UniProtKB/TrEMBL annotation:
<dbReference type="InterPro" id="IPR029068">
    <property type="entry name" value="Glyas_Bleomycin-R_OHBP_Dase"/>
</dbReference>
<dbReference type="Pfam" id="PF22659">
    <property type="entry name" value="YycE-like_C"/>
</dbReference>
<dbReference type="InterPro" id="IPR058998">
    <property type="entry name" value="YycE-like_N"/>
</dbReference>
<feature type="domain" description="YycE-like N-terminal">
    <location>
        <begin position="6"/>
        <end position="29"/>
    </location>
</feature>
<protein>
    <submittedName>
        <fullName>VOC family protein</fullName>
    </submittedName>
</protein>
<feature type="domain" description="YycE-like C-terminal">
    <location>
        <begin position="52"/>
        <end position="105"/>
    </location>
</feature>
<dbReference type="InterPro" id="IPR058997">
    <property type="entry name" value="YycE-like_C"/>
</dbReference>
<dbReference type="Pfam" id="PF22658">
    <property type="entry name" value="YycE-like_N"/>
</dbReference>
Length: 115
């Protein structure tokens, strides 16, 4: 497709908590994606739209995912249910960030990249 960078952006009323979840809990600082969280003096437009709005992170192996799951658990984040049974069938776990947005952790890519 030719993409060289992907950016995910959304507002939040819990900026410090959200940054801690993604940077410390998930370990995303310095990763190959750009997550932008903004805040406004008048507040954000509201909570996560649905439980099917997902950020999906694929790991190279189950051990890498287990390390992140352990770190999230130590920070008080427990797995949450995911609506689509596809995810559990592929060994994935879901977590809700402080705003309720779902992040899905998958132990390995479930599709082959095509070039």
């Amino acid at each position: 497709m030719g993409f060289v960078q992907v950016r995910f952006a959304r507002p939040t009323d819990r900026l410090a908590e959200v940054v801690a979840f993604y940077a410390e809990g998930l370990g995303l600082p310095g990763a190959g994606c750009h997550l932008e969280f903004t805040s406004h003096v008048d507040g954000s437009p509201g909570p996560a739209p649905t439980e099917e709005n997902l950020l999906v992170l694929y790991f190279g192996d189950a051990a890498g995912m287990a390390e992140v799951v352990e770190r999230l658990g130590a920070a008080g984040h427990a797995p949450v249910g995911l609506e689509n049974p596809y995810w559990s069938a592929n060994g994935a776990l879901g977590f809700a960030d402080p705003d309720g947005w779902r992040v899905v952790l998958v132990p390995q890519p479930v599709f082959a990249a095509t070039g």
